[in-house]
Amino acid sequence: NKTASRYRIQGLPASIFLSETGETIGELPGYIPEEQFIPILRYVGTGSYATMSYTEFLQGPQRERGAKPK
Asked: What's the whole-model pTM score?
């Protein structure tokens, strides 16, 4: 598969997060339970990855907007 080769995916499931320009933001191998995956999606989707660590994100005010703690 071209996509798997391009992103060097060696096993499934795998999650790869891309910027609007196609640049890889991050990769997570393996299954991720919903309660952990939703905050990750918020972290990437809000662009917070560009300004803070994931740990800082989890400790910040966005938790009050519904992000579940890890």
From this structure: 0.75
